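Quick one: structure for this chain?
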Amino acid sequence: MIVIGIAGGTGSGKTTVVNEIVKRIPQTDIAIIPQDAYYRDNSDIPLEERRKINFDHPDSVEFDLLVNHINQLKKGKSITQPIYSYLNCTRFDETIKVDPRHIVIVEGILCLTHAKLRALMDIKVFVDCEADLRLSRVITRDIIERERGVKETLKRYEETVRPMHLQFIEPSKRYADIIVPQGGKNKVAIDILTQYIEKQLAEK
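Got it. Here's what it folds into:
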């Protein structure tokens, strides 16, 4: 099994890079593990308090569970991946069964910040992008997908997203084996990464 970590700032284009890879790899050979699914369940606190949680801080992620699940997949065992709701800031009761695959991609803004998780990765990727582009994407996503207003989104960006990016996410770039500038628009970098994956599959 080859474990690939794909990190980068909010709105950098990580999901686009993952989707481009998935298009070129047989579905039976690849599994995607989103870091977002492992945000801690906060159902024990009121909704208004949940909405104030700093989701860009490593403490918001249940990394121990994520590491355990990657280890289980490496042992050839299936896992039950949580499903997280950004609208309610809690986990659903339902889970998703994920079976072991030749390629496992762990994708999320903080996935290169955790030493034990990094140690399980065979290749580490950081998707880089200009701050203004990331901001515009964050605004669009939060308004459409997470039902937040423009003022709330900008306030969150200024108070948590940007400071956490500078403190935790940007420094994690130094752990990357591959840096992908321009996000999902960088076809050359995606081609190189996909060729690496295809080579590993061929050797299996």
